Amino acid sequence: MKSAVIVFPGSNCDRDIQVALRDITGVEPTMVWHGDSDFEKVDLIALPGGFSYGDYLRSGAMAPTSPVMKEVVKRAKDGVATLGICNGFQVLTEAGLLPGALMRNAGLKFICKDVKLRVDNSTSIFTNQYEQGEVINIPVAHHDGNYFCDEDTLETLECNSRIAFRYCDETGDASHEANINGSLNNIAGILNSKGNVLGLMPHPERLIDPVQGGTDGRKMFESILGALTNA
Amino acid sequence: MTKQEIAQEITSEMVAEHGLTEDEFANIVKALGRDPNFTELGIYSVMWSEHCSYKSSKVHLKKLPTEAPWVICGPGENAGVIDIGDGQAAIFKMESHNHPSFIEPYQGAATGVGGILRDVFTMGARPVANLNALRFGAANHEKTRHLVSGVVAGIGGYGNCVGVPTVGGETGFDASYNGNILVNAMTVGIADQNKIFYSAAAGMGKPVVYVGSKTGRDGIHGATMASTEFSEDNEEKRPTVQVGDPFTEKLLIEACLELMSSDAIVAIQDMGAAGLTSSSVEMASKGGVGFALNLDHVPQREENMLPYEMMLSESQERMLMILEPGKEDFAKAIFEKWGLDFAIIGEITDSGNLTLSFQGDVVADIPINSLVDDAPEYERPWIKPLSRKPVDMDELEKPEDYNKVLLDLVGGPNLSSRAWIWEQYDHMVMADTLKGGRPGGDAALVRIHGTKKALAMSTDCTPRYVEADPFEGGKQAVAETYRNISATGAKPLAITDCLNFGNPEKPEVMGQFAKACEGIGEACRVLEYPVVSGNVSLYNETNGEAIKPTPAIGGVGLIENYEDAVSIDFKTDGHAILVVGETEGHLGASIYLKEIFGLEEGEPPFVSLGQEKKHGEFVRSMIEQGHVRACHDISDGGIAVALAEMCMAGDIGANVADESDSLSFQAWAYGEDQARYIIAAEEHCAAKIMSDAAIMGIPAFCIGTVGGKKLEIGNRISIDVADLKSAHQSWMPNYMAEENKKS
Amino acid sequence: MKARIHITLKEGVLDPQGKAIQLALGDLGFGGVDDVRQGKYIEVDLAETDASKAKDALDDMCKKLLSNTVIENYTIDLDE
Description:
By secondary structure, chain A is an alpha/beta fold. Chain A has helices at residues 14-25, 67-77, 87-94, 151-159, 218-230; strands spanning 3-7, 30-33, 44-47, 81-85, 101-103, 111-119, 135-142, 146-148, 163-168, 187-191, 197-200. In chain B, strands 8-10-7-11-9-12-13 form a 7-stranded mixed beta sheet.
């Protein structure tokens, strides 16, 4: 499985996802600079966390204007698997590949800690190694992760199982208390309608080795590897 | 400022406004053989300021040990460098940004982080960890919340964006910092030993290159501000605070590291305090050369900037470098790729002078050695601090409810959980922060990428002790980092120090400084734990009142295999709990006295450095041999608090016997005797640890076992771990939440 | 030509920053502050001299970059 990691000025989790992909797929990902308008054919495009272009104006707002994103948008629309983590999720919404927007956390503070997520779609190419309803442990690290969309969009997401992950408590209850940043319906990650684009605020690439405190992030990359290798 | 103002004659008022004494001014005139012009006066004033010249402290700093076989570069460069094996080096330093952070907490703290990051990547290292040491005023002081909130947001805002994890630190509250908080930031980086860059300029005619952000009028006179006391009207000084741009810093890191992978750079230096002045003077001075700079070529953010402003600006995210001739275009392409300014602003000369031209005129021409070698150096008068009387504990009424005492301590301002703070810092970016070394433990542990090794890092100081006895307090600050690092299983290698004191012109403050330095030096010598970098911050006073002397120590250690490392959390029912080290029940200057009785009296605990070394080595060897399941150093709050912290971290109880014996319970449980650790181990391992300790003559006692849901200590303490956690975790968020409820 | 662009959160989108400001104003003793909404203010200098063309260009800028129309509204004032 071949993958590409898009590097924007200000990306800072590009190496982390590069390491995770290399470790789990066994193939070195291609690092693609934001100024490149073309890159080799790959099975997976990953948009890393960080502060692309300083996250000035709005988080993720500048990235869609870059040459590389025009190509990413085209390929994602053609069905290439595309994963956006944290800032990558913000970029995907700003680029129109995923609906909604990520606003300032309700508590107004940056939050970095392990959180519990409930897997609400375990059939996608990104999540098929998880059990439906499984509660997993993944860290978050963001200031703008408060997911918002209009009511119709929310209903569409809910009715079509496009909400991949929700913030929950240890029992899997997506309670108000477990909603760390004020997201609508505790949304932590969503899929596009075709299921080939996933955006999520938590960082699965940070928990792939037990010494990091767990391996719940591994299954996402294993899901992708399984789905795209067999495809 | 206008051109006329700059051309004006220098008056004694102007000299005083620049923080120079009459004698110092006379020396400037002597060095130049004429009166300085306004630009030159500005340059001398910053180079001869306390911040840049260390004029009051140098004589004492010279006494600190700075060498060991593993030290590659000690103090004097941008940061210290130590050998961590396999051709790699750890490069680190801690620096203060106290005064700017009090005036504008967010930007002051943010630019403090930015500055220390630059000190480290200037030398060729990729920064891998940030730490800090913060001191705020009393929790009930009206400004404290606002300052905590701003400083924490500023540290997070900068560090999170550049993508360097903030993995550790300490935060204290004390009324002595009401008008002068301390914000000390530390960065640790990793480099290949054959790719370390220094600042000494060399090579006649080689180009002097400016890279990074443009120069604006920000922070002019930051260095002199850091060298004077605060008075109430300093709150009007807002414009002198610099504004940071972490996004540019991130680009600057990547661009510099990219250029450093080639052989284009001769020398490099960041523009920190006193900006272009100190960077060019230091580079030229170290290389024994002159610099000719054409200020018209300095990238400028504002219009009509004058030489004085350009030379003194503290605009952030800028570097100065000497390139190999012919490499200019290659280097320029890299900086342009990252969207950063790149300008050749001058060249190296053999004049020995700093010569500045501006719009066709020479506007300054100063012998460089006069700025550095002739800088004043004072042996300021100092008096030996008075020693305190021991506290007579029998005169104090003993608490009736020791449960309440423990809850008050772990749920009080100084020992409560700092999660509210470190959850605002991205402490996991780079994906090398080890689970057991996340914030909240003894030392932060960060894996050296792609290896089995990890760095252990800790910042510590106990100002209560330093105030009570600067010599013992200085020793203790070093010893505590040594213990914290040893408790993870890592070998402590070297320290950086950030010496925060009051006005050095007061003999009693200078006495604190001198004795604390002696204590630090003594500890470093015995523990073979030298000082490789550091910073001095003096004049930490408001309206004549000095802060508690606070020599913050940042220690760095190495563990060869991170899988051997242990954390503080109790893990499994049935593990035996051991105390290593002698418990004598010393309560003088303890947190128990301060927080339970409101007393700041007595002598601090004596630090036996021989025991520190012996016990630290013993604990490390037991960890390395795999006998230890959890380990924690005993410090503030003694055995009882250490046990509570281990229970809370592991979410499991412990049953401990009251071993107070001939001591009173309070002395046994809350005494702060040094050189002690608590260890949890499986029973057969505990026996092995006890017998090895006996052979080596190290005191080790089994005091109980891990298990249950309560922490029970004899018949005096019995508290649900859940209640301990609730008290521990709620103080800080509750306190900060009151920000919006104040009347 | 100089344009002044105000960007505000749409009605119904929770504005936690505005709420925090409202609370703080209350703390400072400013009573009767019913609501606070925080937005952005952007100044743009244009070479264009035709007001209607300028307005069209600005409208496009707002839609494509300066605002996120999922959550934000914008208004454009042009100095003519």
